[in-house]
Amino acid sequence: MPKVTFLPMNTVCEAKAGESILDVAIQNDVPLQHACGGFCACTTCHVIVVEGAQNLAPMEEAEEERIEHADGVGLQSRLGCQAQVRGDVTVQVVNQGY
């Protein structure tokens, strides 16, 4: 099973292929904000991919348009609710909490 490592808490969680980073966080009580409930309507689940970007599904148009509005966005930024896991990945949580 793929693994998602959440920084800075250094929590490693198993994921089923195709689950979003947000799904994995919720199932494992990892503090990753998600104000819109995971519907790509906000940017609170913004994460920065530290390793394994190639192991995430490609960004689709809705995520591309929404991520531009996130604070501190960079080339490795993704929305946790949209980034589907296909292999091991390490992400930096930008907005901790629920």
Radius of gyration from CA coordinates = 12 Å
Low-pLDDT residue spans: none
Derived from helix and strand composition plus strand pairing, the structural class reads alpha+beta
CATH class bucket: Alpha Beta
The side-by-side strand order for the widest beta sheet comes to: 2-1-5-3-4
Percent range of helical residues: 10-25%
Whole-number total of structural domains: 1
Percent of residues in beta strands: 15-25%
Total count of strands: 5
Largest sheet: 5 strands, mixed
> How would the global form be characterised?
globular
The helix-strand sequence is EEHEHEE
Overall average pLDDT: 95
Count the DSSP helices.
Answer: 2
Query: What fold name goes in the CATH topology slot?
Result: Ubiquitin-like (UB roll)
CATH superfamily: Beta-grasp domain
CATH architecture: Roll
Query: Alpha-carbon distance between the termini?
Result: 26 Å
Could you provide a short overview of the structure?
The chain is of the alpha+beta class and 98 residues long. The protein has 2 helices and 5 strands, in the order ββαβαββ.
